[in-house]
Design a protein that fits this description.
two-stranded antiparallel ribbon, 14 strands, alpha/beta, eight-stranded parallel barrel
Length: 359
């Protein structure tokens, strides 16, 4: 029987265990340069015993920033700063992937320089507010990407992936979940396009596959993972038709499977039938952030490696509170309790009202 403490080959990289640190936005980067800080190097190095660390979301371009104090991978200074982080993790024997996260319409002009406006597949204003340096502000109507903009945005992801490797990362995870840009292309309420980037499921998945293709051409599929969250309503996403969800995500994963990626990372909803379908179809490592709402992912989730549901399990809040989490899991505890007041961006974000998806 395979357990969480067995090694695993991830795209040719030997990992010590199957316990991964989930990507969690922390907003600890330098505000003026979007560079990683010494505090971030310490934070990730403390968690290097994870089989795999997936970083917080990193914007691949200036316009891809949607929150305060988030880091980038689009300048030489950012590459240099991240190298200190990756060196610190590698010095402790860890493996670390950079999560590339373009927030799309989730953001605000005050977070962007030079009069830029958040962008999206369609000019649909999200409900709600975003925290800015001036406090909470209503979302604005995003600028709809035209064909040339889409081409440039895809190239931005590939450039950021090259920068990640230059910065010493072992690979990248493309963020296609949680209502950010790629998810906005996937969802029918945020993608109203009538060209070949929108419409039916086969066209709505085109952008995510194009991004993954460009990234794999830049750094190799063995260094590339992809994260999805089917049906997740976070950031005003509406994927409520079970048949469309199934069609969309099976089409997406079929296209991604042809790229020989290192892994697929599923932020699971309550529909375990969909999990089983994606697991069955996916040819490489299947990484799972299990649905445990309203609780955070805990030790019981490791059983889903033992029963074959997943090859790796990602933990969010538990890794914040327990930097040496693999050792604690192996020993059966004790565990520090996560402080919800300081936790942002981890397990099950947005799933409070997750619809039940059947079929």
């Amino acid at each position: 029987m395979t357990t969480a403490f067995d090694p695993i080959d991830l795209g040719g990289k030997a990992l010590a265990n199957r316990i991964a640190m989930a990507p969690m936005t922390r907003s600890r980067a330098d505000a003026s340069t979007a560079t990683a800080t010494e505090l971030m190097a310490t934070y990730y190095a403390q968690r290097a015993s994870a089989g795999l660390i997936i970083t917080e979301g990193i914007q691949p371009s200036v316009v891809g920033q949607g929150y305060t104090n988030t880091p980038g991978l689009h300048s030489a200074a950012q590459v240099d700063a991240w190298r200190k982080v990756t060196d610190a993790v590698h010095a402790r024997g860890g493996t670390i992937f950079a999560q590339l996260m373009h927030t799309g319409r989730i953001g605000h002009p005050s977070l962007l320089p030079d009069g830029l406006t958040p962008v999206a597949p369609s000019a649909v204003t999200p409900a709600g507010q975003v925290f800015t340096y001036e406090g909470p502000q209503d979302y604005v109507t995003p600028e709809e990407l035209d064909g040339d903009d889409i081409t440039r945005t895809i190239a931005d992801y590939a450039d950021a992936a090259r920068n990640a490797i230059a910065a010493g990362f072992d690979g990248v995870e493309i963020h296609g979940a949680n209502g950010y840009l790629i998810h906005q292309f996937l969802a029918p309420n945020t993608n109203l396009r009538t060209d070949n980037w929108g419409g039916g499921a086969a066209d709505r998945v085109r952008f995510g596959i194009a991004v993954a293709t460009a990234v794999t051409e830049a750094i190799g599929g063995h260094r590339t993972g992809f994260r999805i969250s089917p049906g997740n309503p976070y950031n005003d996403i509406a994927e409520t038709d079970p048949a469309d969800v199934l069609e969309t995500y099976t089409a997406l994963t079929a296209g991604l499977a042809r790229l020989d990626l290192a892994y697929l990372h599923l932020l699971e909803g309550p529909d375990r039938d969909l999990t089983a379908r994606l697991r069955k179809d996916w040819p490489a490592a299947f990484v799972l952030n299990p649905f445990t709402h309203p609780e955070t992912t805990g030790p019981d989730a490791l059983a889903r490696i033992e029963d074959g549901t997943a090859d790796m399990i990602t933990f969010g809040a538990m890794f914040l509170a327990n930097p040496d989490l693999p050792a604690r899991l192996a020993a059966g505890g004790p565990y520090n309790t996560p402080d919800a007041a300081t936790f942002y961006g981890g397990d099950h974000r947005g799933y409070t009202d997750y619809p039940t998806l059947t079929g």
